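RETRY 2/3 - previous attempt timed out on the joint model. Re-submitting the same 398-residue input unchanged.
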Amino acid sequence: MTRFVLWTLGGVFLGLIIHLIVILNLPRLANNDLWNRMAAIAEPGEIALLDAPAIGEGNPLELDPALAVAVCRLDLDDGPGIVSGRLPDDFWSVSVFNTDGIAFFSTTHRAATANRLNLGIFNPAQTRLLAERDIAEQSDFLLVESPGNQVFATVRLAPPHRAMLESYRKRLAELDCSNLPALPVVANEPPPAEGGAPVPAPPRQPQ
Amino acid sequence: MRFIVYLLYAALIALGLGLGLSYYALTDGRLVGARQIGPWLAWPETGGPHPDPYTRAYLARHGALQLGSSEGLRFVAETDSDGQPLDAACTYLVDGKTPTATLWTLSAVDPDGRNIAVSASLPYLDSYHLTRAADGSAMIAIGPNLVPGDWLEIAGTGAFRLVLRLYDTPIAGGRDWSSSEMPSITRGRCA
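RETRY 2/3 succeeded.
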């Protein structure tokens, strides 16, 4: 009897270890995760519209049929990422995801000025350069720091009526999704003083 | 011989427990990381910037486009308020207030996530187009049988789920949970 209990406890202990191994390793091993799905849909630097799920059809992304959704994939190695444009005066929201499918930044229309989405995504090195250039003075600029260079942003837009879904999808298609070839310069930035410290070079010069 | 039997026995327990626990923890019926209000379940960590290991594994396995925590929160109900599984052959009344939100949408899906609404012109209901009582509450009917008022017609048989997405809501960030109320789900006539 003692031996039976010991073997049972051994099995339970080993089962818990297997459970932990599965949970901790699944994110690394999954090949049909959100990043891979987005990479198949959206090219870097281009807006891709996600199809609203139709009745009776699969909805692996678990999209809301009521909202128009656009994706912008960006490689920050090509320069800071920008997602910008004017949106209708209705609910919209934006999230930025990393390669693990984790939304490390999200906000809604309430964070914008005059319904203008003006989102900048920067890696840590680009953020340091931005701080030196004091770009935070642009009040409607949403600055997001990404730990990695591979990201994608989603923009969700809610039409006030279902009949307007298609026209709102077109509004999303007009958003700008691109990499800045160089760090943006604030319009009223004073020129560097003669003999002063040189302005740090942006991570990548214009082509 | 006895040693081998014991070894197989322990291996079966280990595999069954290890894989079974993992499957449970990674499916939508899981209670790991769940917050519950009545029959409604939500997993707020899925939209957060620092999810726990279980949520990370869930995100990797499902590959769904989650709502960021500032965007909103998705609730799922698989049972009515009495704990009985939702059946597409029955009509349900969804009655009561929802937490503060700029917008919410309600849809009915089968266990595989396919929308089971009948009309392509009305695949969901939303908070923009509802008849409300004086206290702000709404009463919605969901089922195959015509009901006056706000009615989402569905088709099919067997189990289904209700998905309620709240947009721009403070509870997505973990606030106001204790004082939040969600609509009740009451079973009506079954076909």
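DSSP finds four helices and nine strands in chain A. Closing ticket.
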